[in-house]
Design goal:
Two copies of one chain form a homodimer. By secondary structure, chain A is an alpha/beta fold. In chain A, β2 and β3 form a beta hairpin. Chain A is globular. In chain A, 59% of the residues are buried. In chain A, α3 crosses α11, α5 packs across α6 and α7 crosses α9. Chain A contains eleven helices and 13 strands. Chain A folds into two domains: 124 residues, Nucleotidyltransferase, domain 5; 158 residues, ATPase, nucleotide binding domain (Nucleotidyltransferase, domain 5, 2-Layer Sandwich), CATH 3.30.420.40. Helix content of chain A is 41%, strand content 23%. In chain A, the strands form three sheets. A five-stranded mixed β-sheet of chain A has the order 3-2-1-4-8. The first copy, chain A, has a five-stranded mixed β-sheet with strand order 11-10-9-12-13, with helices on both faces. The mean pLDDT of chain A is 94. Chains A and B meet through α7 of A and α7 of B.
């Protein structure tokens, strides 16, 4: 049987998105189910069910994107903030269950790979993708190859310091002044609540800005300028041709973010990198993660 | 003739250090000369003279480390702050003159490669090296391969933002709040002058700390904590096993820097990266750059 398809699974804090994906990045069929919140055992069972529901003879590999640092050598989810998984050997577990090569990666790497193979990053050899949602994730393609850091554990671009001794992170991160604390959808919601009361959130902030509210625009501009500091740093490190903004908040707020973020990023960037990058919006929406995960599966297949 | 040796050239703001280096990283012979300050023509002439003085039949390649972003595809020094070079086609120029493969890299990449092949980073597959001198440079080895960013132009680790909208950089960099503005030897000298008067500098600061001066120690600790924010960011991005501090100021102040920097870096770093890295002092001193440059030459030879 020809290796036509891979199943990509995007394991998120609230949903498991799974799909059958072809080598050209097209999604043949997909579905979603809720992420269990109670135990690792239930998460594993739902992941198995998500794959089993999609499996047929055309599927030659499985790829999973998980919201956690990954121990790539062992194929283990180290510890997730949003899903009850800790030291979970997802790769071997799924391989034993389904008998095909399984790839495991961080969800933000997965989204970057998805956009690179089938979205806004097609044909680009050097890109940085930032996903702005509940948290901030990052993924890198460098020289036409996904870059993962030592033992696949790095590229936590949301956890670079942009304000020394600044705002504390949430959850398990003990850091201060990280990009995530300033530019995530959560940070936007916090700022919206402070300005507009406890019922406001990031969506309302964008809506208010659309209606011309000066305070909402100011909040988004300040957030965007902080984002620009992060982007400028990544441009100086990775010298990308393309910086992509994705994630729910990143896409929804893109029109407010792109101008000020780009202005600050170009101020921070050195030549020649300063003139060589462009900033763009991710294209694949919520499918980026599962498409990218499927390519992580193809990668496992091709190197098996 | 067997490819025994490469000539490594470390082009610095004040000196050109050149040496004949064997495959094991040992320096067979070396010398130095002053870097011309007046024109690109004179810099090129002195580089040629430095190589010509060392050349013999055992030399099969030349490597050059330059204090500037590099356009790797074209083999060009884009623009140096400290040396009168702009858009200088060093690689082709030296190749035409001497007829052997020539490699060109950023000087901080060169120093990192030197420490990796022949110094404190021997046997390590994932390392980050920071050189703290007049400026702050960085070099990366990831997965046993030097990492250079898109078109070899990135890895400007001194120019990541650690304080959004913070202290301006010096020279051609228009950025604000970059690591370099807080932790370079120049920044240490600025702080020393502010505290101890116009004749003070980074060396005197260290001497005063050695003598027990509380203010000097406080300045170094604050500098070290800012360094920790940068290191924490790099650990989250690259997941290194080893972070090396080199450069004149980095080595001289190491005993004051390492404790506070490591404390902050571990606070900023996520698991598992937080527990997986160690911080150490570079070993090769001023020879790191020329040794690494020689290995960039061997790289050009082996891929010719």
């Amino acid at each position: 049987m020809e290796a036509l398809h891979a199943i990509g699974v995007d394991l998120g804090g609230t949903k498991i998105l799974a799909g059958v994906v072809a080598r050209d990045g097209s999604v043949v069929r997909r579905h979603e189910r809720a992420t269990p919140q109670d135990s690792q055992e239930h998460v594993l069972a739902e992941l198995e069910a998500a794959v089993a529901e999609l499996l047929d003879d055309s599927v030659a590999a499985i790829g999973i994107g998980a919201p956690s640092p990954i121990d790539a050598k062992r194929g283990v989810v180290v510890r997730s903030v949003n899903v009850p998984l800790e030291n979970a050997p997802l790769r071997d577990h799924m391989h034993e269950r389904f008998g095909v090569p399984v790839g495991l990666d961080n969800d933000a790497n997965g989204a970057a790979i998805g956009e690179w193979r089938a979205g806004a990053g097609r044909g680009v050899d050097d890109l940085v993708m930032l996903t702005l949602g509940t948290g901030v994730g990052g993924g890198i393609v460098s020289g036409g190859v996904p870059f993962r850091g030592g033992n696949g554990g790095g590229v936590e671009l949301g956890h670079v310091v942009i304000v020394h001794d600044g705002r504390p992170c949430q959850g398990v991160c003990t850091g201060r002044g990280h990009l995530e604390a300033y530019v995530s959808g959560t940070a936007a919601t916090d700022a919206a609540r402070e300005a507009f009361g406890p019922s406001a959130d990031a969506h309302r902030l964008i809506r208010l800005a659309n209606e011309g509210d000066a305070k909402a625009k100011e909040i988004l501009e300040d957030l965007a300028r902080h984002l620009g500091s992060g982007i400028g740093s990544f441009v100086n490190i990775f010298a990308p041709e393309l910086v992509l903004l994705g994630g729910g908040f990143g896409v929804a707020a893109f029109d407010y973010l792109c101008g000020p973020a780009e202005e600050v990023a170009r101020r921070e960037a050195l030549k020649p990198m300063r003139d060589d990058f462009r900033l763009a919006k991710a294209e694949l929406g919520t499918a980026a993660g599962l498409i990218g995960a499927a390519f992580v599966g193809f990668e496992a297949l091709d190197s098996a």
